[in-house]
Amino acid sequence: CGVFGVIGVADAANFVALGLHALQHRGQEAGGIVVYDPDHGFNSARRFGYVRDNFTKADVMDTLPGELAIGHVRYSTAGSKGATAIRDVQPFFGEFSMGGAAIAHNGNLTNAAALRRELIERGSIFQSSSDSECIIHLMARSIQKTIPERIKDALRRVEGAFSVVAMTRTKLIGVRDPLGVRPLVLGKVGDHGYALSSETCGLDIIGAEFLREIEPGEMVVIEGGKVESFRPFSPAKSRFCIFEHVYFSRPDSILGGRSVYETRRQIGVELAREAPVEADLVCPVPDSGTPAAIGYAAESGIPFGLGITRNQYMGRTFIEPTEQIRNMGVRLKLNVNRALIKGKRVILVDDSVVRGTTSRKIKDMILDAGAAEVHFRIASPPTAWPCFYGVDTPERSKLLAATMSEDEMRDWIGVDSLKFISLDGLYRAAGEAGGRDDANPRYCDACFSGDYPVAPSDKIEEGFQM
Ligand code: 5GP
Ligand code: SF4
Ligand code: MG
Q1: Which residues lie across from 5 on neighbouring strands?
Q2: Is the domain 2-238 a CATH 3.60.20.10 member?
Q3: Mind listing the pLDDT tens digit for each residue in 332-378?
Q4: Which amino acid residue places its CA nearest to atom 8 of ligand 2?
Q5: Residue 142 Cα, ligand 3 centroid: separation in angstroms?
């Protein structure tokens, strides 16, 4: 998901709409905005579909006055799937004795099922199926006197990944979980305003100046042109999601001081060193494989070419949550440039293999177009474990790499060769010259390594074995 908030600017909702538009790649199913204005109180709008189709029209935007606003774009990883339940669309809102508050959450809470059971037993009335709603109910049960204190209380009880943007009548609040699994950055807007955004590309679009990241375990409270910083949690070693660098974030964003584009290009360089092959063409699977393919071509000296064209009007296939739509999706989205591919030995570079559906269909398309050989190079290690922190990987049994060896995957996909970047190679590309420090890894890489930095307690209760 993507979260965004702004304070201290006229028509804050317009800024949030733009910010969410820049974060649309983080969630395409639905979006929502909450605003506060002293004359009109809290107002909100939640809609299915793209930001540009909903939060650009006067009939919606005119209902969202105020200089303080937060918003969310949704990608379902918990709760209902797809455009089925508007009640699952964030931000969530609650009235407390000291006033209203709204919150938007990116990430996944790993103890939400247990918390929900406990809260329902004690009288909470849940409105949605989302894990994030627990935060509002925990706030309601807190005995603290201010909303920021209640947010701290609530977030001390949740486990897992959370980058939260929240607001009261006067404050914009940002929090990152102690491991800093999901990103969140702070920017300056104009003379008096501030913005919080999942990624720096959300600041760029509104012309905000990037100030800094919210640090893992940090909470900022912004009011009256001042930013106050708190440390509500016990300190921990940060474990930022390495898959944000591989796939999830936009390549023009800066994460942890690193250009996402540069990391991706460097993954391609590492991949060319680790897994060279003789070929005539390096071709990205667009768009997610493109920077790595550029790096692979540069390092190998093999010409780069756009052998696959992507229909720009389709969203991210993987994010369409049902199997049927996903299956059609590959063809709806990608088509082969026959004139370029015919007769060539082609290296296809993609970011990841999850179920293998995409790779298999692309291989068919490339062979249909008359390629002489097809070699897959993948910019991440085999995805062998599900993510419980906010990326929607399927259960283990549906992950190709959880059930097959690399050679079996190659044969199942039906290509001449298949190679994944090593975990050490990925770490080198992400700025760790010595590779992965197994005693103290810098990133979360659980979907590749099975090393979960936060025990997924709800899933363990359901029978998941680490
Ligand atoms: P597959 O077809 O193997 O199940 O999915 C792999 C494709 O899904 C890749 O091309 C990748 O770009 C795309 N993808 C989109 N969203 C995600 C995600 O959240 N996780 C992973 N691993 N891949 C994703
Ligand atoms: Fe990111 Fe993978 Fe960790 Fe999930 S399991 S937070 S996708 S690195
Ligand atoms: Mg892709």
Answers
A1: 70, 196
A2: yes
A3: 788 899 999 999 999 999 999 999 988 999 999 999 999 999 999 99
A4: 445
A5: 43
Range 448-453 average pLDDT: 98
Tokens of residue 364, six digits: 């068919």
- Helix residue spans in 39-146 (DSSP H): 51-54, 58-61, 112-121, 133-141
Give the HSE-up count for residue 132: Cα atoms under 13 Å, Cβ half-sphere: 33
CB-ligand 2 contact for 220 (6 Å cutoff): no
Quote the distance between the C-alpha of residue 346 and its chain's center. 30
pLDDT at 331 over 90: no
Computed over every residue of the chain, the mean pLDDT equals 94
Ligand 2 geometric centre to CA of 242 (Å): 7
CATH number, domain 262-433: 3.40.50.2020
Rounded CA gap, 224 and 194, in Å? 10
Question: 279: which residues sit within 8 A by CB, 6+ positions away?
Answer: 302, 344, 345, 346, 347, 373, 375
Find out whether 351 is annotated in a ligand binding site.
Answer: yes
Please list the residue range(s) of the chain that carry CATH number 3.40.50.2020.
262-433
Measuring CA to CA, which residue among 205, 347, 213 is closest to residue 280?
Answer: 347
CA distance 416 to 410: 7
The radius of gyration of the chain's CA atoms, rounded to the nearest angstrom, is 22
pLDDT bin (cut points 50, 70, 90) of residue 460 is: very high
pLDDT digits (tens, 9 = 90+) for 258-286: 999 999 999 999 999 999 999 999 999 99
Q: What is the pTM of this model?
A: 0.95
Tokens at residue 33, please? 């905005």
Q: Residue 363: helix, strand or coil by DSSP?
A: helix
| Pairwise CA distance, residues 261 & 254, whole Å | 9
Q: Where in the chain is the domain with CATH 3.60.20.10?
A: 2-238
Question: Other CB atoms closer than 10 Å to residue 312's CB: what's the count?
Answer: 8
Whole-number Å distance between alpha carbons of 211 and 136: 29
Closest residue to atom 13 of ligand 1, CA basis: 318
* 113 closest CA partner among 142, 148, 86, 78: 78
Side chain identity at residue 429, one-letter code? A
- The secondary element (H helix, E strand) that includes residue 118 is helix 112-121
Bridge partners (DSSP) of residue 47 are: 31
Which residue's CA is the nearest one to ligand 1's atom 8? 318
Rounded to whole angstroms, the Cα distance separating 376 from 419 reads 6
Percent of all residues in the chain with a pLDDT value above 70, rounded to a whole number: 95
